[in-house]
Amino acid sequence: MMLSLGVDTQKLIDERVRSGKYATAEEVVTAALHALEQDEHAAGEFGPGEWDALLEEGEASGPSLEGNTVLAELRALRRARSRGNGK
Question: CB 3.0 to 4.6 Å from 16: which of 23, 28, 34, 43, for a disulfide?
C-alpha cells in the first residue's frame, strides 16, 4: 500500500524512528493504528458526554489520592481486622 503523507506527518514519523523506539516507519504507523483502535474502543464504552461528566464528578469529589498510600492504608486495615477476628 502506498500512502501520500503530509510534511508534518512525515516529520512526526521520522522523529519516532530517530528516537530509536521504532525501527521503521511501518512500525510507527502500526503503533499509531493500534492506539487509534484502543481510543475508539474506549470511546465506545461511554455515551455522548458521559466521559466528561465522570471526569467532572471525580474532580468535584475532592483532592486526589496517591495510589500507594491508599493501598498501604487498606493493607493496614485488613491486618487490623484480621487480628481483631482472631485470625
Answer: 28
